[in-house]
Design a protein that fits this description.
Order of helices and strands: HHHEEEE
Structural class: alpha+beta
Radius of gyration: 13 Å
Oligomer: single chain
Strand order of the largest sheet: 1-2-3-4
Strand content: 25-35%
Largest sheet: 4 strands, antiparallel
Helix content: 10-25%
Number of strands: 4
């Protein structure tokens, strides 16, 4: 299945979570390493959509938010550096993206590049 091009990617998810340093499960350093910072969050949104459009999603588990679809792919940052990422889409009326590091045990994004198993 391809992720629908109109899937919701909340600006708050990008500007108030993914691109903001956090003491736990920080994703901002991983993304900053390839050039994504708060002021260019729209570029991050475009890059996420490019990843989702480039590969088939595979069915994941069920959650309180609906069925999860998993997309493993390569994201390219404004610096032209690339990193492997996993995006998750929760099904239901409002489909939302989130990031996971395919190599992290806790599901968070790690610092540096990750590899898929």
């Amino acid at each position: 299945m391809k992720i629908p091009p109109n899937a919701l990617i909340s600006p708050d998810k990008l500007t108030k979570y993914l691109l903001v340093p956090r003491s736990k499960n920080d994703k901002s350093q991983f993304l900053a390493g390839i050039g994504f910072v708060p002021f260019n969050w729209r570029e991050l949104e475009r890059a996420i959509r490019q990843v989702a459009a480039s590969v088939e999603a595979r069915r994941g588990s069920f959650s309180p938010h609906g069925e999860k679809w998993i997309v493993d792919g390569i994201i390219e940052g404004p610096t032209k550096l690339k990193r492997r990422v996993r995006t998750l889409l929760a099904g239901g009326a409002q489909r939302r993206f989130s990031f996971r590091d395919p190599g992290a045990q806790d599901g968070s994004l790690a610092h540096g590049t990750t590899t898929l198993p």
